[in-house]
Design brief:
This protein is mainly β and 466 residues long. It folds into four domains: 92 residues, Immunoglobulin-like, CATH 2.60.40; 62 residues, SH3 type barrels (Roll); 109 residues, no CATH class; 87 residues, Sandwich (Immunoglobulin-like). It contains four helices and 33 strands. Strands 1, 2, 3, 4, 5, 11, 12, 15, 17, 18 and 19 form an eleven-stranded mixed β-sheet that branches. A six-stranded mixed β-sheet has the order 16-20-14-13-24-25, covered by helices on one side. It has a six-stranded mixed β-sheet with strand order 26-23-21-29-32-31, with no helix packed on it. The chain is elongated. It starts with a helix and ends with a strand.
């Protein structure tokens, strides 16, 4: 019992000594926010602090509520940070706000705005608040109906935001620069591409936008510098980024500034956005990063067939884009979603599909599937299967491709063999083909408008020993 009392006394005295420490004043100079594809950000804030001689407490306030406490680091140009701790924001509601305001001067405005009551909160009762006023004690009924104004900021406003509290040792009282760094999980970005396809020809325009998302309900990234890092940076844990509401006014102002080219960052790429600008809670900005107006593309149709039976097959519309300077690109492309709009003969731009776009290096080829064609249909028929000597199996297929459209096209037929079809080879084919990999062969089948083409081939393979 005595030992517990001693511990309580020590903690109590330590609290008195802590709050008796003088405080240093801090003024934020800059906030740099580096946002990663993983859905988090690394934030570095620079402060100018005025330190008294000896020990003092510095409060760094207005931090996001989703700060990762273990990531916090504090450095001073002059002085030493003895320790620092993160204090999350208080979440007050109407039921407990008067409990928190106990002992503080407040000003209450009646619901009709005609009456103002000033005083200090003395006691909170189930249906009343007891105020000490110049005229005496006042029991105010139904206090939640009143608007609350604080007489002075006091500690409430400080604690309504997340903060880092730093105990600083300074040999001489002077001005110093403090750097605070931390991770936060309330912000992320993703890439959105929009490609405009012409009514004729093979040159399209490609626009890439960075969708910067602040999912927090309380984090205001005010007048901050932003950078975006493309690529998945290794982390111990990460969170997905939910969508947020779109606000476009600021994006239009930022779009007036040309985007900076990306800079290499240890195998990743960093994009510095024009700024500084402000990212409000639950705000979603679209910021232009890439604009190319003469990007060459190849359009083809693809059928994915599998060995083993007869079936109806969809015909996919495929676009291929070479990420080279010759094709109009030649830049690293962050992963994202690419959206395609086709221009009609009337000059209208119409959405025709979208697809995920992986991170694409310079020199790589982008292959995207924008959907299933309506005019093109395919049907696979296994019309003969024979078992030969020596575990050999011979299968003959027909793939009938119908083109109901008004233009001729080429069909790329990917034929997937079964895992047990060993040592396979194509013994006959009506159309040219190439071996794609160990289990796939690709045929090229031209089809005229309003007609059909029939691909016929025979595959011979060896089945496993039984």
């Amino acid at each position: 019992m005595g030992r517990n009392l001693l511990r309580i006394a020590v903690v109590f005295l330590w609290g008195i000594l802590l709050w008796a420490q003088p405080t240093g004043t801090a003024r934020r100079l800059q906030r740099q926010v580096t946002v990663y594809h993983n859905g988090f950000a690394s934030v570095v804030e620079r402060y100018q602090v005025q330190l008294p001689q000896g020990q003092s407490i510095v409060f760094l306030t207005d931090l996001p509520s989703s700060v990762v406490p273990s990531s916090i680091h504090v450095q001073l140009s002059d002085g030493e940070a003895r320790w620092y701790r993160f204090r999350p924001a208080l979440h007050l509601d109407g039921k407990n706000i008067f409990e928190f305001l106990r002992g503080q001067a407040v000003r209450l405005i009646s619901p009709d705005g005609q009456q103002v009551v000033e005083g200090t909160v003395v006691e909170v009762l189930p249906s009343h608040v007891l105020l000490r006023t110049p005229a005496g004690l006042l029991a105010l009924p139904d206090p939640l109906r009143y608007q609350v104004l604080l007489e002075k900021e006091g500690s409430l406003l400080t604690q309504l935001s997340s903060a880092v509290q730093v105990l600083v040792q300074s040999q001489r009282g002077r001005e110093s620069e403090l750097t605070l760094s931390y991770f936060t999980e309330d912000i992320g970005w993703q890439m959105r591409y929009i490609a405009h396809l012409p009514a004729e020809g093979s040159r399209m325009s490609l626009h890439g936008f960075a969708a910067l998302e602040n999912r927090s309900s309380d984090a205001l990234y005010d007048s901050s510098m932003f950078s975006l890092v493309a690529g998945t940076v290794a982390r111990h844990e990460q969170d997905a980024v939910p969508p947020a509401r779109a606000i476009m006014e600021q994006a239009e102002a930022i779009a007036a500034s040309p985007p900076e080219p990306p800079t290499e960052l240890m195998g990743f790429y960093r994009y510095d956005l024009p700024g500084p600008f402000t990212l409000h809670p639950r705000e979603h900005l679209h910021l232009p990063l890439i604009t190319r107006n003469e990007v060459r593309f190849w359009r083809l149709h693809q059928v994915r067939a599998h060995a083993g039976g007869s079936s109806t097959l969809p015909v996919f519309q495929i676009l291929r884009i070479a990420n080279t300077e010759e094709a109009g690109l030649g830049i690293p492309l962050p992963r994202g979603v690419i959206q395609f709009h086709a221009r009609t003969s009337e000059g209208l731009s119409t959405f025709v599909g979208e697809s995920a776009l992986p991170e694409t290096a310079i020199g790589d080829t982008i292959t995207v599937n924008i959907g299933v064609s309506v005019d093109l249909k395919a049907r696979q028929i296994l019309h003969e299967r024979r078992e030969l000597a020596g575990n050999l199996v011979e299968e003959s297929y027909r793939i009938i491709v119908l083109n109901g459209g008004r233009e001729a096209t080429d069909i790329e037929v990917f034929f997937h063999l079964r895992w047990e079809q060993q040592n396979w080879r194509i013994t006959s084919s009506s159309h040219p083909y190439r071996r794609h990999d160990a289990m796939r062969v690709v045929f090229r089948v031209p089809v005229n408008a309003r007609s059909e083409s029939i691909l016929q081939f025979t595959v011979q393979s060896q089945s496993p020993q039984r």
